[in-house]
Write a structure and sequence with these properties.
Number of helices: 26
Shape: globular
Number of strands: 23
Bound molecules: adenosine-5'-diphosphate, magnesium ion
Radius of gyration: 32 Å
Low-confidence stretches: 7-11, 368-431, 692-697
Oligomer: single chain
Mean pLDDT: 80
Strand order of the largest sheet: 13-12-14-11-15-16-10-17
Structural class: alpha/beta
Helix content: 25-40%
Largest sheet: 8 strands, mixed
Length: 757
């Protein structure tokens, strides 16, 4: 590049971890490009490009005389090559190998490559070759098709590549195993030991980081390879858990305020409920109350399976907060869900005199008079408990309120303001009479200035749609509000300590009593006729039905029956019962009306896409039919199924599949077997691996280079315990022995923390 001096070449022998590979003179320049394609730019990148597997080349076995299902590694001399054509332009390249010290019983091995032009250029008679693959009997010959191979060029190389347990790397084009291995080998020889810091606690594993890195690439024995791997996994996990622990410590030592009232309002609310809380709900409310009362900000995750009754818990938390004179925000992932929460809150809380407002992209409404933040009321709001900071928020709110397109509350909902009852509430309230105490909205609220002068609690429903970064926006406010995130997506427990590792976790592990069973059945789509008569019988008994499709309409051009096309069919099929169609492209106000008609049972069946996937609660709807069920993931199907089974009637979930593949049957069978979300999550993990489930982008954590969240779960527990105990005794990492961890954390996070920099 013009104007930039070439990087200094390192002539001295010592290389350090942080060096760029460009600085190492002996690495051929074209290799740098290939390495960059693998994301390898520094010495550290190179040495943490860990082997995918190792081959035992300490001794090569005799050539096989039979086929085998296990891949083996053989060494021999090329005695013949040939190129054969078949089917016109197709070519097979064959190289015949003979083992060294062949005897009368030796069988040659024929290696074959189909249509791989470059292989033919690399292999010639007389060369020695190492191959790795499965020997197969083809006619009378023992063949290996498309083996991995390496040509042995000189004896010096033998000591690096052969006669040892040899590393095999995740490769790239333009970079052979041998070249990569040689570069790593030489780098390891030239690295200065002191440069490689041992980040893990010595108690976590034996030996140093440098020894472990050396041994993972070129282990002397299998045992030392395993020990090295364990060491490296532990230090990787430890680094991750230190990051998580520092996030956690950062928020727990942040400035917060106690936000809990005495609980009179909550008691009053619980008395009005038509049901008793479950033991699990009461336990979780007590945990939350404890956090609310503490001066440091709450950061709590509430996990509870679909239908376990998380909304009531959220309401309890909000009531404690508003009783103490603060305001609460309740965020849902979809507009439908926000509207539903708003309805429930109005039904349950307006009689108690609580003021509630709704603010979604599509609609704004308040039970108090609008506009919410008139200059006067803002002035009134600048009462006792407000800092000058909060004043700035209020003035922004005024401009927000004047924004065009704001919809006045519809007359059907009534915009009349109910003054709060004379209760414990009033004496504590420090803001104006028009300001809402609870603001309900979608997650979009995060990107607005939440126009609250005295925000005490933020509840985020269905957190799995929602990442760490977004959560961080909330906690950045000073003083920080308490945060409660709720999710019905059970994730395996080992993932919880990673993805949600910086949160305190409460679990509702008990369903409300008097719930009917959910019976799940998988049916072939050809059986729709029989299914229909079952559905009609349920409708006759007064129940309601969801039919869920994977897509919005046929414009998505997949071979899937789309909801809008099928809707008319369903009207005929279910005649004279009433159906309505709901999908993401239905305009917002109409969506709301459709849901209301379904909720009030004016409509019997809702033909819908996955817009009803999360949170929707219509207890009389007890039948769920999912079309093309094979197209959904397990966790998603579990969510969808969670729409039913919400009352005392038995519920039925019918999964129609139009594909009888093994994978589909195995997947759907899980749902027939269990209605327990944790079991579904474990099975889901089993079937597709953690990638999808974890949503690594969302977790905001560094990608793992060596550890495996599933098979190394015990190491994660160990690493977590170690990291947590460090922060427990030293939340700001001030002790001299903890100084070495600072760099580790700051480097990973790419920023400093208020407590660790
Ligand atoms: P989720 O945890 O999926 O968000 P909801 O909060 O929507 O579940 O609750 C599901 C249904 O169960 C609602 O209709 C709610 O009123 C009801 N419910 C909640 N708690 C109880 C309880 N302890 N006993 C009976 N019904 C309850
Ligand atoms: Mg819910």
């Amino acid at each position: 590049m013009a104007g930039r001096p070439p990087p200094p070449k390192l002539s001295s022998k010592r290389i350090s971890f942080s060096h760029s590979l460009e600085e190492i003179a002996w690495i051929p320049r074209p290799r740098l490009l290939a390495l960059r394609r693998l994301g390898i730019e520094t010495v550290e990148d190179l040495l943490t490009h860990f082997p995918r597997r190792h081959e035992d080349r300490t001794e090569f076995p005799r050539f096989p005389r039979e086929e085998s299902d296990v891949s083996i590694c053989l060494c021999g001399e090329v005695i013949k090559t040939s190129l054969r054509r078949f089917g016109g332009w197709k070519k097979i390249f064959e190289a015949t190998l003979q083992e060294s010290q062949a005897n009368a019983l030796s069988e040659p091995l024929v290696c074959r490559w189909f249509n791989l032009h470059y292989v033919q250029k690399m292999i010639m008679s007389g060369q020695r070759l190492v191959v790795f693959g499965k020997p197969r009997l083809r006619g009378k010959r023992i063949c290996m098709d498309h083996p991995e191979f390496e040509v042995i060029e000189n004896d010096e190389e033998i000591s690096i590549h052969f006669r040892r347990i040899t590393p095999i790397y995740p490769g790239t084009e333009g970079l052979s195993q041998r070249v990569l291995r040689s570069i790593i080998y030489r780098t390891l020889n030239e690295i200065s030991r002191e440069e490689v810091e041992t980040v893990a606690l010595s108690s976590l594993g034996q030996g140093t980081q440098c020894d472990a890195i050396r041994a993972i690439h070129f282990p002397e024995t299998w045992k030392s390879r395993d020990a090295a791997r364990e060491h490296l996994v532990l230090s990787e996990f430890f680094a991750m858990q230190m990051l998580i622990a520092s996030r956690r410590a950062e928020s727990s030592i942040g400035t917060g305020q106690p936000h809990s009232g005495p609980g009179l309002l909550l008691d009053k609310f619980l008395k009005t409920l038509s049901f008793e809380l479950t033991g699990a709900q009461s336990k979780v409310i007590a945990e939350i109350e404890h956090d609310l009362a503490a001066a440091h900000p709450m950061n709590r995750l509430l996990q509870g399976d679909v239908g376990s009754g998380k909304t009531v818990v959220a309401i309890a938390a909000m009531l404690l907060v508003i009783e103490a004179g603060y305001q609460a925000v309740f965020m849902a992932p979809t507009q439908i869900l926000a509207e539903q929460h708003y309805d429930v809150l109005r039904r349950w809380l307006e009689p108690l005199g609580v003021r509630i407002a709704l603010r979604t992209g599509a609609r704004q409404e308040a039970t108090g008079s609008l506009p919410l933040f008139e200059p006067d009321s803002a002035g009134a709001a600048l009462g006792s408990g407000l800092s000058s900071d909060a004043g700035a928020v209020v003035s922004k709110a005024r401009t927000f309120d004047g924004a065009p397109g704001r919809e006045k509350s519809s007359s059907s909902r009534g915009a009349t303001f109910h003054p709060p009852e004379a209760s414990a509430l009033q004496s504590e309230t420090s803001f104006g009479p028009n300001e809402p105490q609870i603001l309900v909205g979608t997650h979009a609220l995060l990107y607005e200035t939440v126009p609250f002068s005295n925000l005490g609690l933020v509840v985020i429903d269905e957190q799995h749609k929602f990442g760490v970064a977004q959560r961080a926006r909330l906690t950045a406010r000073q003083p920080a509000p308490d945060v409660l995130v709720m999710t019905a997506t059970p994730i395996p427990r080992t993932l919880t300590m990673t993805v949600y590792g910086d949160l305190d976790v409460s679990i509702i592990d008990e369903m409300p009593r008097n719930r009917g069973k959910i019976i799940t059945a998988v049916r072939d789509s050809s059986k729709l006729g029989e299914v229909l008569s079952f559905l009609r019988a349920q409708l006759e008994a007064g129940r309601q039905l969801y039919v869920v499709y994977p897509l919005i309409d046929e414009s998505e051009k997949l071979d899937v029956k789309a909801a809008s096309a099928e809707y008319e069919l369903w009207q005929e099929r279910l005649h004279p019962y009433r159906c309505e169609l709901l999908h993401g492209r239905v305009p917002a106000p109409e969506k709301q009306e459709i849901m209301e008609r379904f909720r009030s049972a004016q409509t019997n069946a809702l033909i819908s896409t996955t817009v009803i996937e999360v949170g929707v609660d219509v207890p009389n709807a007890t039948v769920m039919l999912v079309e093309n069920a094979e197209r959904f993931g397990l966790a998603q199907l579990h969510q969808i199924r969670g729409r039913i089974g919400r009352a005392e009637h038995n519920s039925f979930c019918i999964l129609l599949a139009s594909d009888q593949s093994k994978e589909t049957s195995a997947k759907l069978a899980v749902l027939e077997k269990t209605t327990n979300g944790f079991e579904v999550a474990e099975a889901d993990w089993e079937l597709r691996g953690p990638g999808d489930l974890l949503g690594t982008a969302q977790s905001g954590l560094p990608a793992l280079k060596i550890g495996n969240l599933k098979t190394d779960a015990h190491l994660m527990r160990q690493a977590r315990a170690a990291a947590m105990s460090i922060f427990q005794t030293d939340p700001r990492l001030e002790l001299p022995e903890n100084q070495r961890f600072r760099r580790l954390i700051v480097e990973q996070q790419g920023r400093t923390f208020s407590n660790v920099s």
